[in-house]
Amino acid sequence: MPSIFSRIIAGEIPCYKVAEDEKNFAFLDINPLAPGHTLVVPKTETDYIFDLSEEDYTSLQLFARRVAKAVEKACPCKRIATAVIGLEVPHAHIHLVPINSEGDLDFKRAKLQLPAEEMSAVAAKIASNIE
Ligand code: AMP
Fold first, then answer.
1. pLDDT tens for residues 74-93?
2. Can you tell me which atom of ligand 1 is nearest the CA of 33?
3. Is 41:19 a contact under the CB 8 Å cutoff?
4. Nearest-angstrom CA–CA distance, 24 and 40
């Protein structure tokens, strides 16, 4: 059965999309740690990020860098932090999280539930800053 992220990429499940290229896809995390928290995923479904081929891993990281620069422009912060966890969804993904302090990357913190209009606006702002 395809992962929830494969179903998002296929357009079967809605998402707040921010970018895609030939091999990768980026959309907002539905329960963000901060506004602009974005997930970057390879279109090819692989559970564990370090099982990706060298080519796909490199492509994912370069795409994540492109998206991170757009998130940084759209969501003022000190840094974009990256994290790879993958304990919940078995489809490799990189979290890009705008942070101002170390504690902002604490995945045990209560997640935000932002109104749909705000999620759409943030996604559109990030998308418009993709170079
Ligand atoms: P993890 O696999 O531990 O890295 O966590 C998976 C992340 O995916 C969590 O931060 C979830 O909030 C996020 N997530 C799960 N389902 C969706 C979805 N349908 N759309 C956007 N984000 C999701």
1. 999 999 999 999 999 999 99
2. 10
3. no
4. 7
Ligand 1 centroid vs 115 CA: distance in angstroms? 17
Cβ atoms 23, 63 nearer than 8 A? yes
4 CB under 6 A from ligand 1? yes
* Predicted confidence (pLDDT) per residue in 22-45, tens digit: 999 999 999 999 999 999 999 999
Burial label for 92, CB within 10 Å (0-12, 13-18, 19+), is buried
Q: How many whole angstroms from 89 Cα to the centroid of ligand 1? A: 6
Phi, psi of 51 (to 5 degrees): -95, -5
pTM of the model: 0.98
DSSP track, 38-83: EEEEESS--SSGGGS-HHHHHHHHHHHHHHHHHHHHHS--SEEEEE
Residue 91 annotated as catalytic: no
Which residue is it, tokens 């995390």? 29
Query: For ligand 1, is residue 85 a contact (CB within 6 Å)?
Result: yes
